[in-house]
Specification:
InterPro entries: RNase_H-like_EbsB-rel. The chain has two domains: about 5-135, no CATH class; about 145-215, Ubiquitin-like (UB roll) (Roll). Helices cover about 55% and strands about 15% of the residues. It has helices at about 5-10, 30-35, 35-45, 50-55, 60-70, 75-95, 100-135, 185-205, and strands at about 145-155, 160-165, 175-180, 210-215. The protein has a four-stranded mixed β-sheet, covered by helices on one side. α4 (about 50-55) runs antiparallel to α5. The radius of gyration is 30 Å and the shape is elongated.
Length: about 220
């Protein structure tokens, strides 16, 4: 619930509910988001479906069911961003004495939409990449576990890093290993050390029905 002056009066935080912008009407949620003349200037620049539904609604409780029926996901997102930006605009004027014109409000909404779209695209790409890796990983037979092992070499300081992950037949992680060792970076020696450490790790876990899968 927005901390409008009317709501704050109901909570006995304030005594005067008058809107600090118009200085006439009580500052309710509907007044800020639907009725105020500065709000209408912004909504007049929105999608027609938003304009039509908004113009006939008397309260947010009445408006939102209409919007869910008439608007798709993108337009509902736009409406939510418009409402949040209208409240931001109100705070800019009340607390900083900065007037934000309607075009700038819409521009901010569009910018927020672009940011959300960019985040959703990145998340979809990451999910696709994760799903692709999961499809490439083959689960072990029932009753077995699989150890994926990898090793990294730092020739400059003669150190190696050994990593191992144990998964069950459902692909759930059971245990992981990360360890650094001093070692000659000669490839065959490195692989031998990594294999020996992985075998020891398996015994430490008390696992015997295990399949080893080396990462490339």
């Amino acid at each position: 619930m927005l901390p409008t002056k009317l709501n704050l009066c109901k909570r006995k935080v304030l005594d005067d509910p008058t809107c600090p912008m118009c200085l006439m009407e009580p500052e309710s949620i509907e007044h800020i988001l639907l009725e105020f003349v500065l709000t209408n200037d912004v909504l007049s620049l929105c999608h027609r479906k938003i304009q039509k539904s908004q113009s006939s609604a008397k309260s947010l409780k009445e408006l939102m069911p209409q919007m869910f029926k008439k608007l798709n996901k993108d337009k509902m997102q736009e409406l939510a961003l418009i409402f949040s930006t209208l409240w931001w605009r109100r705070n800019q004027l009340v607390f900083k004495n900065i007037y934000i014109n309607p075009n700038s409000v819409i521009k901010r909404v569009r910018h927020l939409q672009d940011e959300i779209s960019s985040v959703e695209t990145r998340q979809a790409t990451q999910t696709s990449s994760i799903n692709s890796r999961r499809r490439m990983w083959e689960c072990p037979p029932q009753g077995f576990c699989k150890i994926n092992r990898d090793v990294a070499v730092d020739k400059n300081v003669c150190k190696i890093g050994i990593g191992a992950a144990v998964k069950d037949e459902d692909g759930s992680f059971l245990a992981t290993l990360r360890e650094k060792q001093d070692s000659n970076p000669e490839p065959l020696l490195v692989e031998t050390i990594a294999a020996r450490r992985t075998a020891k790790f398996k015994l430490e876990l008390g696992m015997y029905r295990v399949i080893l899968d080396e990462d490339s």
